[in-house]
Write a structure and sequence with these properties.
Elements lengths: L2 H8 L25 E3 L8 H4 L4 E5 L12 E3 L2 H15 L4 E2 L7 E2 L4 E2 L4 E2 L4 E2 L4 E2 L4 E2 L4 E2 L3 E3 L4 E2 L4 E4 L4 E3 L5 E3 L6 E3 L4 E2 L4 E3 L6 E3 L4 E2 L4 E2 L4 E2 L4 E2 L4 E2 L4 E2 L4 E2 L4 E2 L9 E3 L4 E2 L7 E4 L5 E2 H12 L1 H8 L5
Parallel strand pairs: 1-2, 2-3, 5-8, 6-9, 7-10, 8-11, 9-12, 10-13, 11-14, 12-17, 13-18, 14-19, 17-20, 18-21, 19-22, 20-23, 21-24, 22-25, 23-26, 24-27, 25-28, 27-29, 28-30, 29-31
Antiparallel strand pairs: 4-7, 15-16, 31-32
């Protein structure tokens, strides 16, 4: 991509442009010619040497200091780097359009929007709608009655619309499975990591709203609703019928029991167990019964000192 086009895409300035074609990115530790190098802290590197053959992406505050040819200056260089990385990734992707992918399984009544691309061995069952500009990677399974919005990325191995884990103990003391036919609805601009499972709802769909991002190995159970722009880290399990608010940040290995509700702007720290509703915004930790994080830290401090307290009070250990 030509450097001038890159500057327009990320709204960056190039005080001394000498047009070149950029092939991608490289790191300051391993610079490559005609690539972009994002420099967060210029003082840590030999900037003059790096600028000889590469394009530097720098914070706008340095525009009057570093006047090398072809340096890019952005008001938010980390965001600019992220946008460009996504653009180059799409350009170099092995994903193909539906017409170019003979190993794609398509059921009946399937709609796919413009410019959506697919990896190998993707399965799409009946009554599925996929929006425009989606990237569905290798070995993804999309079961029946799933609706996916625009600009959605689903990474390899994920299963959308899997059967929910709803069961009832019958009179003859055996488990009787409850059929789930509600499907899944995923909004626009969502990212779903590798090997995630999103179960379909029982009657109404499980809902993932706009801008939600899931790390790898996340399980979303039946009838769950995830609010917009929520981020969920790896190995999180959310049990059935939970209502997760907007802009929640859920750390790795968090477990949320069924029918829990969380407010908007909640942060749940890693490995917490959530067994009650979180009704107010804030940061929560639930290794012991979940509580506000500041209260949990105070209790945790005393727990670490219990042995010394016992010795001080000369209490016989049980």
């Amino acid at each position: 991509m030509h450097l001038s086009k890159i500057a327009n895409l990320i709204d960056a300035q190039i005080p001394n442009l000498k047009e070149v074609e950029v092939s991608g990115f490289s790191s300051p530790e391993n610079p490559k010619p005609n690539t972009i190098i994002y420099i967060a802290k210029p003082e840590n590197y030999n900037i003059e040497e790096l600028a000889k053959n590469s394009v530097l992406l720098l914070d706008f505050k340095f525009i009057d200091i570093y006047k090398f040819n072809n340096s890019l200056f952005s008001k938010n260089p980390k965001l600019s780097f992220t946008k460009l990385a996504n653009i180059f990734a799409k350009a170099n992707s092995s994903l193909l359009s539906i017409h170019e992918r003979p190993d794609l399984y398509l059921g009946e009544n399937v709609y796919i929007g413009n410019n959506s691309k697919f990896g190998r061995n993707v399965v799409i069952e009946n009554n599925v709608k996929i929006g425009s500009n989606c990237l569905i990677h290798h070995n993804v399974v999309i079961h029946s009655n799933v609706t996916i919005g625009d600009n959605v990325i689903i990474s390899s191995g994920s299963i959308i619309g899997s059967e929910g884990f709803g069961n009832i103990f019958s009179d003859d003391l055996r488990w009787l499975h409850i059929q789930h036919k509600g499907g899944v609805t995923i909004g626009n601009d969502c990212q779903i990591g590798s090997n995630c499972c999103i179960d379909q709802g029982t009657i109404d769909p499980t809902v993932i709203k706009n801008g939600v991002i899931l790390d790898n190995l996340v399980h979303i159970a039946h009838n769950v609703k995830i609010g917009s722009n929520t981020a969920i880290a790896a190995k999180v399990g959310i049990a059935g019928s939970c209502l997760i608010g907007e802009r929640n940040m859920i750390g790795g290995m968090v477990g949320i029991v069924d029918h829990i509700k969380t407010a908007d702007d909640v942060i749940i720290t890693a490995t917490s167990t959530v067994n009650k509703d979180l009704k107010e915004p804030g940061t929560y930790t639930g290794i012991m019964p979940i509580s506000e994080h500041v209260n949990w830290k105070r209790v945790a401090l005393w727990i670490t000192k219990l042995d010394k307290i016992v010795k001080f009070l000369n209490i016989k250990k049980i």
